[in-house]
Amino acid sequence: MPFMVNVSYCFTLAENDSVTPLNLFRNIGHVFTSYSFQLALKNNALFLLLAMPAIIIVSFLLALLLLRVTVSNAVFRTAFFMPLVIPTAATIIVFQILFEQSGFINHVLRVFNMNTVDFLDSRYSLLIMVIIYVWKYCGYNMLLFIVGINAIPKEYYEAAKIDGAGKIKCMYYITLKLIKSTMFFVIIMSLINSFKIFREVYLLTGDYPSERLYLLQHYLNNNFRNFNYQNLSIASLMTFTFVMLILGFLYLRRNRIEKGE
Questions:
Q1: Which of 20, 35, 115, 164 is most buried, taking the most CB atoms under 10 A from its CB?
Q2: Cα separation of 19 and 16, whole Å?
Q3: What residues does each domain of the chain span?
Q4: What pLDDT is attached to residue 259?
Q5: What percent helix, strand, coil does the chain show, rounded to 5?
Q6: pLDDT of residue 162
Q7: 209 membership: H or E segment, kind and range
């Protein structure tokens, strides 16, 4: 029922509650020509392009590293997983201490007589958002990779070594080939978790952050506060459609890979 109400708002105007297809195209045009929506869409796209490869590579490398560590292995796994269970408010306090105008990093810069930087309103702000995301969720992905790699029979590696395969070939032809299902699940979860980064950004910067940190969730949240349900409905449905298209593409790609196409 809430979903249908949301769809119905797409066919109405603020000054006219009649439901007509023409209103839908007007609302879509209004949202697409909105600078704030374009900005939010661009920032989300840039964030995904940076964050998705970064978290997959980092978590995979951590998984390989911890599989080789035999001493205190459980301790390291727990340490990397801890950011996920730490309350968001505590996470924000840590990054405020580090990156605020009066934070630790700027304090170090002052000690060395260097210019301070407002990191949350600079060209580094998107990078900081990526760091927060990777720091928070790489431990979860790392555990998924560890489970997937441990499920590979050790006999495959032993046979490959007998045939003269090195570590790189074993990595490519055995590990990466046999964790496709795990990789697919990690990508899906990373995509879902990427939209959760809004909590940290919102607590750090509020409703109206710098332009580099303005996300789709900011646009949705601000339209809700302003009672602009038409823009809110259109943008939310477009976001939903965008995510479903990505998931559908990944699913079809996975099926093609498994069939060897």
A1: 20
A2: 8
A3: 45-151+181-209
A4: 64
A5: 80, 0, 20
A6: 83
A7: none
